[in-house]
Design brief:
Elements (H helix, E strand, L loop, with lengths): L2 H16 L5 H8 L3 H6 L6 E4 L4 H7 L6 E6 L4 E6 L4 E4 L2 E5 L4 E5 L3 E10 L7 E9 L4 E6 L8 H14 L7
Antiparallel strand pairs: 1-7, 2-3, 2-9, 4-5, 5-6, 7-8, 8-9
Length: 175
């Protein structure tokens, strides 16, 4: 790792230590780095890199979760939707999720990284969010799937998250 990269990681970790619940998107903007670098710098194993090459298996596993909270954000807009994954199909470069509550068309060749993330919520010091976050080739967030949002996760949600994290961790094979 170059001295500049080491310094950037140190800056990221210091910023996260000062404000553990900071929105990773905002920290990335403030520090001028791709958001994936902020997620990679999360301390204490709070971000476990998943095998992004298994993106379809990961997405299909979301169907069993029931209702989740999906966030898609770009430089001008953020959209949040509660819904359930399912109705999967592929058309050209698009992998489609089409249910009564979610209608997503993912350009899967652009997905480059995925993480299971547990971090303090930016809305409450007493709540940790559990999410799976996908990033594009430029290191920007493609979309995030939250198993809990705005409240403490149930024991079942915690188990589901732990199972996803273990099953799809980089270097793991499906069991």
């Amino acid at each position: 790792m170059t001295e500049q990269a080491t310094d950037r990681v140190r800056q990221l970790r210091e910023a996260l230590e000062r404000n553990p619940g900071a929105m990773t998107m905002q920290l990335a903007r403030d520090l001028g780095v791709p958001e994936v670098e902020v997620v990679r710098a999360l301390p204490d194993g709070r971000a476990v890199e998943m095998d992004a090459g298994r993106w379809e298996d990961i997405l299909r596993s979301f169907e069993a979760l029931g209702t989740v909270h999906v966030i898609v954000s770009n430089g001008a807009t953020t959209i949040e939707a509660g819904g359930q994954f399912g109705g999967f199909s592929t058309w050209g470069e698009f992998f489609n999720v089409q249910t009564k509550t979610l209608d997503m068309h993912l350009r899967w060749p652009q997905l480059a990284a995925a993480f299971a993330v547990e971090k303090p919520s930016h809305m409450s010091d007493e709540v940790s969010t559990l999410s799976v976050q996908f990033f594009d080739r430029a290191g920007q967030a493609a979309f995030k799937v939250f198993l809990n949002f705005g409240g403490k996760p149930t024991a079942e949600r915690r188990r589901q998250f732990d199972d996803l994290r273990a099953r799809f961790a980089l270097g793991q094979t499906d069991s």
